[in-house]
Amino acid sequence: MTVPPRVPRRLAAPAPGWTAEADVVVVGSGIAGLTCALRLRERVERVLLVTKTVLSAGSTEWAQGGIAAAMDPEDTPQEHLEDTLVAGVGLCDVDAVRALVTEGPDRVRELVGLGANFDVDAGGDLRLTREGGHHRDRIAHAGGDATGAEISRALIAALRTVLDDPGIEVVEHALVVDLLGAADGSVCGVTLHVIGEGQVDGVGAVRARAVVLATGGLGQIYTSTTNPPVATGDGMAAALRAGARLADLEFVQFHPTVLYLGEGSTGQQPLVSEALRGEGAVLVDDRGERVMAGRHELADLAPRDVVARGILQVMAERGLEHVWLDARHLGAPFLERRFPSIVARCRELGVDPATELLPVAPAQHYASGGVETDLLGRTSLTGLSACGEVSCTGVHGANRLASNSLLEGLVFAHRIADDLGARLAAGELPAGRVPVEPGGRPADLLDSSHRVRLQRAMTRGCGPVRTAESTREAAAELAELAALPTGAAEPGPRTWETTNLLHLGQALALLAHRREETRGGHLRADHPQRDDDRWLTHQRVTRGEDGVLVVTERPVSTHGDTAVGGAA
Ligand code: SIN
User: What separation in Å is there between the alpha carbon of 93 and the centre of ligand 1?
Assistant: First the structure.
């Protein structure tokens, strides 16, 4: 990569026309944002929860498989930790995983206490299933395959019961534009674009003692993804522009079994949960031969990077656009009871899992990297915390273990709420820090008409199979987009989203190009082996003073100890 990419300090946007104040502003309303806001409300005076469209529109709502936690008496957090580390292919930070697996079971029990209706057996015990990379049945699910929707429902219901409380306020249709920075470099609020009415409409500024980003992932950077349309990386991009450190961005997870709808199909695609394979469905090629036979001891339930790569190899060898998932032997009554949403969606689209093979192919699913945090969810910028998919806590390493994402959002949202509650009570992050006008020119905006070109460049260049050349080409195409004549695009939500995708794409392509090895989510065709001597390290990217993206590396934190009872 010859010219290192630059990103500006802020997006071009109208000057704020309104202002609001809060102790903490939480941006995003998936499991992480809702959990954090609800818990913060008990700890600080004024919480403002803002969300891009409506409360239920984020990725949590779409989560099918479930939430992983060692809830079975036979299971242990230690075993959950070991499976997480194996899936993360050497790049998980062990202390973060330890926090996840030890605190996870209590957090899930609290969700049940809050009213989330998980599926239970006749005795009232949670029904637990298995997904790729897990050696035990430890995935709690709801509505069969509608776990995220049920969690979202329960959390939103809990939020609605406290909305009369002056200590918490919700603003929907509020897109975060940028972070506000004080003279000491700390974060002291956000600028937002609200499609509202009356006082709060258009671009405004919310000043806060602390900001929590829970804005989800960046799936819309690729041509096809399981992520909803709102997943345009807005929080991640705003953090990058503000100078926060992002880490592991090159580790993008491609889900192996996404319903294949034809070559030209773009945007959000229907997920076919790994839990189907957990219940016995298998992947086959055009001859009916098992795709995963002989590839891994767990076969169809290998970690999802292994399965996705197996599928891509078979597709390449046999000239196929997809493989097939065979769930027919599970029978209509079981499939309809256990996977009602998937069965209904497939039938709607003209294919019946009870009687037909399902065409499936890998598609973008999850950003394993994001805004780097410590164990308390603090980022490299004072006053800014992050949780859920927007963050990189070190839990996922190079490849997230199935159903660890909802759990991560839950566990780290709690940690952040407790941390901020204590800090604000101790007088840290004082109110009244005045935002300073960032220097430099605001970003030239990228018109949304270029979004498809950007997505194609990222899919070709930084997809599950990459090379030095493909990542270089993606970077070059994004550089061309960044250099388009100024003033062509009007500020507004679609343009800001597209510009966010551009800034994150530039950072992602830079890290993907540098990592000359195959690990986790991707295969580097020109470096087909994992290289622990050189690459047992996190890559981090930060915006330098002059806007140039600077890459540094951090060794993986193993603390030499992978026991759950070890150093915390
Ligand atoms: C799935 O249900 O296969 C997805 C679960 C996850 O992404 O963890």
Answer: 21
Q: In angstroms, what is the span from residue 19 Cα to ligand 1's centroid?
A: 39
CA atoms of 543 and 180, how far apart (whole Å) = 16
412 CB-near residues (< 8 Å, 6+ apart): 32, 99, 373, 377, 387, 388, 391, 393
Q: Which CATH class is domain 256-363?
A: alpha beta
**Mutate which of 147, 252, 403 to test ligand 1's pocket (most atoms within 8 Å of Cβ)?**
403
Q: Which CATH architecture has domain 21-251+368-425?
A: 3-Layer(bba) Sandwich (3.50)
Beta carbons of 96 and 387 less than 8 angstroms apart: no
Helices (H), 463-562: 468-482, 493-514, 532-535
110: left (phi over 0), alpha (psi -120 to 50) or beta: alpha
Give the model confidence (pLDDT) of 53-86 as tens digits.
988 888 888 888 899 999 999 999 999 999 999 9
Contact 221, 508 (CB under 8 A): yes
Range(s) within the chain of domains with CATH label 1.20.58.100: 448-555
What string of H, E and C letters represents the secondary structure of 219-282? Answer: HHHCCEECCCCCCCCHHHHHHHHHCCCEECCCCEEEEEEEECCCCCCCEECCECCCHHHHCCCE
CATH code, 448-555: 1.20.58.100
Say if ligand 1 is within 6 A of residue 274 CB. Answer: yes
The pLDDT, as a whole number, for residue 523 is 92
Q: Is 98 a catalytic residue?
A: no
**Looking at the predicted structure, is the pLDDT value of residue 410 above 90?**
yes
Chain region(s) in the chain for CATH 3.90.700.10: 256-363
Catalytic residue among 43, 207, 241, 304: 304
CA of 542 from ligand 1 middle (Å) equals: 30
What pLDDT is recorded for position 59? 85
In this structure, what DSSP letter does residue 474 have?
A: H
Residue ranges, CATH 3.50.50.60, the chain: 21-251+368-425
In the predicted model, what is the mean pLDDT of residues 110-135? 94
Site of tokens 């759990």? 407
Per-residue pLDDT, averaged over 361-370, amounts to 96
Distance from C-alpha of 234 to C-alpha of 5, rounded to nearest angstrom? 19
